[in-house]
């Protein structure tokens, strides 16, 4: 079966015109942990044509309660394992995997790869680095998360839009409350949803 035929079969329950727009787009995902590994799979399943992944960590046992990996993959590279899982699930998706840390020095070059970026870090300094960069580069678009710990309350989750930046979370929970897959995956789903709306809307977030 050709890639196009397979794509048509997999996406037959979606609007074909919207799926065609997804296919044209590239999305960069910073981090392949609880948020990133799940966002990447959602975007691949929806038909986003190209995913560019960045992460430099290895899979640990403590990741398995919320990240898209298995017991047999503990110790392996997150970014390359995520790439393999995406390609095994959706064979026609184009995935670039980069095992490197995102820094002040390489961020400018990295941000030439796409227009839309999803922040899925668990490091506050890395989050701040991205926010500072995107606040100064309004021709690039960032979806970021803050507050996704504990078991949460749905009514506390908010989606906010600030020019080229989309912020998602409850903005108050902290990692000391624990990390649980149902709540983490809820935030990951919202990040993926906002990314798909951005593509569908031709480069505008869901409130446009």
From TrEMBL:
Signal peptide per UniProt: none
Recorded coiled-coil stretches: none
GO annotation terms (biological process): cyclic threonylcarbamoyladenosine biosynthetic process
Residue ranges constituting the THIF-type NAD/FAD binding fold domain according to the UniProt record: 24-201
Pfam families documented for this protein: ThiF
A single GO molecular function term of this UniProt record: tRNA threonylcarbamoyladenosine dehydratase
InterPro entries: ThiF/MoeB/HesA (IPR045886), ThiF_fam2 (IPR012729), ThiF_NAD_FAD-bd (IPR000594), Ubiquitin-activating_enz (IPR035985)
Protein name, UniProt field: Thiamine biosynthesis protein ThiF
Species lineage: Bacteria, Bacillati, Bacillota, Bacilli, Lactobacillales
């Amino acid at each position: 079966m050709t890639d196009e035929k397979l794509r048509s079969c997999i996406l037959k329950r979606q609007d074909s015109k919207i799926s065609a727009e997804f296919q044209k787009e590239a999305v960069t995902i910073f981090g392949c942990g609880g948020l990133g590994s799940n966002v990447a799979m959602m975007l691949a399943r929806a038909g986003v044509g190209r995913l560019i992944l960045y992460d430099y960590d290895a899979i640990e046992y403590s990741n398995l309660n919320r990240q898209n990996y298995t017991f047999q993959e503990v110790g392996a590279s997150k970014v390359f394992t995520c790439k393999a899982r995406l390609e095994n699930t959706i064979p026609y998706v184009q995935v670039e995997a980069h095992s490197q840390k995102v820094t002040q020095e390489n961020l400018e070059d990295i941000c030439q790869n796409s227009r839309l970026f999803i922040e899925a870090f668990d490091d506050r300094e890395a989050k701040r680095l991205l926010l500072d960069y995107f606040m100064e580069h309004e021709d690039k678009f960032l979806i970021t998360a803050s507050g996704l710990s504990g078991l949460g309350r749905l009514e506390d989750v908010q989606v906010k839009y600030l020019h080229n930046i989309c912020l998602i979370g409850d903005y108050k929970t902290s990692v000391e409350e624990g990390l649980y897959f149902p709540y983490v995956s809820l935030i990951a789903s919202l990040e993926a949803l906002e990314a798909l709306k951005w593509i569908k809307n031709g480069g505008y977030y869901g409130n446009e």
